[in-house]
From TrEMBL:
It comes from the Bacteria. This is Low-specificity threonine aldolase. Keywords: Pyridoxal phosphate. The keyword Phosphoprotein does not apply. Its cofactor is pyridoxal 5'-phosphate. Homotetramer. Residues 9-301 form the Aromatic amino acid beta-eliminating lyase/threonine aldolase domain. Coiled coil: none annotated.
Length: 354
């Protein structure tokens, strides 16, 4: 095996910054610029994102996905309200209580869904159930969906639109956690608008860090009657939470670099292609099963412990996942990125030959 093989498949967070983003950071590292988002790079964000999403937007760069989700939801949900999401959603399980903290104690209400894809009737049922409870239940003010979802599965735009319609009909706003939105769009082959505002999404957490940035996400409001009031004081929310970077230009240039020449979609397409290569290779092994379809850059595979042991001893990195009793073996999660190479995938697969 070549010495420099990249063995860490544990997350798309573990990889380096992509060269184009690093170059943009270097180029921006010149002279002085106004602080707190009043610089020339940040000024370009609304126009550039507006071009990509083909609509009017208000864009707020934030360093982490957790803060982006939490700040976005804090605008949509009153402290006495709640947000509904799938039971495996990142905001529910992986953000350390930040959404509840930022929402001033508002509740997260969860629903179980097949493969983490929320169903319209389940959404309607929970909304009606909470309404029927009157003052006993915090009213649901927002729906939060994740694209791609926690299993790397991609919502079809028509399904997102049906969920958004059901939510809007009951007065909810709709948030999309797009930590891996680029991977979803690359997988769907659709326009960014199709899986966002045209599918009823009001506010998006646009993911950059998993797709080549050093640290940059963006809260993107798709401007309409519902969202304009949220935008008004959003910068104050950012400031009050300590997330208003003074040297804002370094955040903004990362996002601009990702949008330039569709780099974000090229990076995501490459990551997805590498995931397909890995998934196809894994599926050929008689003792390996894939509990979820590989639709983006995350692969979940159930492997015998003996193979996991071999891979770990060979130095490959991945996470063991909770494995339901009906699955034989142990589920591991593998994630590919812009930086994964075909030879890295093949080196991994060479350790599980039959
Ligand atoms: C779906 C999803 N949303 C949000 C986040 C949060 O990102 P961060 O770690 O930057 O807070 C992650 C990170 O793993 C994620 O997978």
């Amino acid at each position: 095996m070549p010495e420099d093989i990249r063995k860490n498949f544990s997350s798309d967070n573990v990889v380096r910054v992509c060269p184009e983003v690093m170059q943009a950071l270097m180029e921006a590292n010149n002279g002085s610029a106004s602080a707190y988002g009043n610089d020339a790079h940040t000024d370009l964000l609304n126009t550039r994102f507006g071009d990509v999403f083909e609509t009017e937007v208000a864009v707020f760069p934030i360093v982490t996905g957790t803060a982006s989700n939490s700040l976005a939801l804090s605008a949509l949900v009153s402290p006495f309200g709640s947000v509904v999401c799938d039971q495996v959603a990142h905001i529910q399980n992986d953000e350390g209580g930040a959404p509840e903290f930022f929402m001033h104690g508002a509740k997260i209400v969860t629903i179980p869904s097949p493969n983490g894809i929320m169903q319209v009737d389940a959404l309607q049922n929970i909304i009606h159930e909470k309404k029927a409870a009157g003052l006993l239940a915090p009213p649901i003010h927002a729906l939060s969906l994740t694209q791609t979802n926690e299993w790397g599965i991609v919502y079809q735009p028509s399904h997102l639109a049906a969920l958004s319609d059901a939510a809007h009909a009951e007065g909810l706003s709709v948030h999309l956690d797009g930590a891996r939105l680029g991977n979803a769009i690359a997988s769907l082959g659709c326009a960014p608008a199709d899986t966002t505002w045209k599918a009823g999404i009001d506010v998006l957490t646009f993911g950059g860090t998993k797709n080549g940035a050093m640290a940059a996400e963006a809260v993107v409001f798709f401007l309409n009657e519902r969202t304009r009031p949220y935008v008004q004081d959003f910068k104050r929310r950012i400031k009050r939470s300590g997330h208003l970077w003074s040297k804002h230009r370094y955040l903004s240039v990362q996002l601009l670099a990702l949008l330039e020449n569709d780099l974000w979609l090229h990076n995501a397409t490459h990551a997805n292609d590498m995931a397909q290569r890995l998934s196809i290779g894994l599926a050929q092994h008689p003792d390996i099963t894939l509990p979820y379809p590989t639709e983006s850059n995350e692969i979940f595979a159930a492997l015998p412990e003996t193979i996991i042991d071999t891979l770990e001893k060979a130095g490959f990195g991945f996470y063991r996942w909770t494995t339901p009793p009906h699955i034989t073996g142990t589920i591991i999660r593998l994630v590919t990125s812009f930086d994964t190479r075909a030879e890295d995938v093949d080196a991994f697969l060479s350790h599980i030959t039959i």
